[in-house]
Structure formats: structure tokens, C-alpha cells
Amino acid sequence: MIAQIAADGHIAIIIGRTDTGKSTFCRQLASIALKKGRKVAIVDSDVGQSWIGPPTTIGMKMVTQDFESSLFPDAFYFVGNISPNRCLLQTVIGTKLMVDRAISFGAELVIIDTTGLVNGSMGRALKTGKIELVRPDHIVCFQRGNELETLINSFETISHYHIYRLNPSKEVTKKSQEWRKEYRQKQFEQYFSDFIIQDFSFTQFRSQRSVFLNGRRANDIEIRNISDIAEDTVLYAEWFSKGLFIVTPDSLNEITARKIYDYFSLDDLITYTSEDFHQLLTALLDEHSNPICLAIIEKIDFEQGILTLKCSKNAPGLAKVLQLSNFRI
């Protein structure tokens, strides 16, 4: 089976619970395919325990015989969370984009490592979405008993898919939640170890996944007006289509938010506190929407419109897009 995939497979997706040997299998399959002279890429879509790219990302790496785990892949997609069930759409989209990038890099075999989320409605939706979008020709399932049958039975009658059922390796070491947490922390520490602290003007960016930096910044008179209605200091505000984005020192209660909502006849009110941005994990993209690096928001001066980020040394001259998340370091 592994020899067949290595010889003529195009896209292989590896699925199974945590601690079933998926990543080891990916390495073994890649090594055999390389020996057959094929160009191989691995897409690591395990955002919580990634070994290609830092956590919260889907990484793609062209593999060589001396390949090792890499925090700096050839391409990556920022999901923005370590839990795929909070970002199903981004996880599925990111996997597809990284497979496409691998093929554009010349990969003849793309191997997709996945998270251990396989059961329940979330797990089935995630894996089914990936399979339907990526359309692998080989699906390798590590399962105990028949735990994945509900998931894979729907693909069994489709001739495009070759499905393999394997028992998890008995040599796999079960990892505790504490071990996983410490692993992620070490990955982040190593990734950001030689990054710099850099100030950016709000005007340099547009943001993605948020209305922040995409609307019209409220002027001083408008800020004072909103502050009076809120009976609190408004540090920053932006208007967008029938909506308002505001930042305050403390969370607004529901009554205050309703007052603002009704006074301006809003369809949407988005409220943040200044603390919500502190140590927030983001990604920086260039003008072609290619990811440059992950970054951490160290500080925001809303009055001056200055964003202080911990980022790679080449980011200041390239960054045009700020992708926000809800994950804080």
C-alpha cells in the first residue's frame, strides 16, 4: 500500500485520532517516494500540534532526504487558533490553498497530515470538507475498531478514492495535554526568538477577518459624542456600512451597548477593549496576499494610530495586510 502511494499517488490525506502515528507515517511515505525520484511535499494541517510551521498555521514544505521538522515552511496559511473546531472554514480553506501551493512548487505527491479531530459532527464536517475540497486519490485511515467508518463510508463508493484502513502503531507514545501545551509554547518561543519590535502606522495596513482598519476613522468630535453616550472613554472608533467599531478601556455592558446601537440606528456594533489586542497573535501579508510571518501585538497607541508588533526583520518593508485572530500568546 505505502509503496503504491509513493509510486503513483498524487494527493494522500492521512486521518485518525491523536497518537495514532499519522505524522510518522507521513515521514515514512515521503522518504519512500523520494527514493523513487518523486518530488514530495507535506502539508501539515494539525494547527494545535504542528511540526511544519508554528502552531495556529497550516504549513507546506517541499521534502528532501535530510528533511526535519521546520518552523519556517515554504508556505503557510494562518488559521489563527490551535483548535480546528473553532476555525473549521479557515482550516479547510488553508489545507486546500497549501495543497495548491505545493503543486505550484512542482510537487508530484502531496501528503496531508491532519488533526486528531475525527469524531462527532465537528470532526466529520472537518475531514469531509477537506476530502471534498482537496479530492485526494488516497485516504489513509488509522483507526481502532471501526471508529472512522461513519466518516469514510460515504467515500467508499466513489471510484476516485482509494481507501486504506490501518491499525495504529503499538509503539506510539500517548502525549498528555500538559506535554502538548509545553510543546506549543516551545514552538512559539523558538519561532519568535530572533524577531524584532517594530512600530507601524495604522495607515500602512488593511486588516482581514475584522472590520478594524477597514472603515472610516471617527474624528475627535465623533469620539467625544460616542463617549458621552457610552458614559465611558472611547479610545478609538471606526464607521463602516451601517455599523460602528469601538475600543474602550473596559467592556461595555449590554445596556450601554444598546444605547449606542439605538442612538446611531446601527445594524452592527463591534466592541473591543484595549486589553483584547494585547499579545494578540496576527499574521502579516504582502501586497500579493502572501504570508510574511506571524506577529504579536505588543502595544497599540490608538490616539497616534501606531501599532507595535513583534515581527520578522523583513516585515516592515513588505507588510500590507494584517490578519487578526482571537488567539493570544
Structural features, described:
This protein has helices at residues 2-8, 22-35, 88-104, 120-134, 149-156, 177-191, 220-230, 254-263, and strands at residues 11-16, 40-44, 57-62, 75-78, 109-113, 138-142, 162-166, 196-201, 206-208, 216-217, 236-240, 243-248, 268-273, 281-285, 291-301, 306-311, 321-323. By secondary structure, the protein is of the alpha/beta class. The chain has a 7-stranded mixed sheet with strand order 4-3-2-5-1-6-7, with helices on both faces. It has a 6-stranded mixed sheet with strand order 8-16-15-14-17-9, with no helix packed on it. The longest helix has 17 residues, at 88-104. The model has no long low-confidence stretch (mean pLDDT 94).
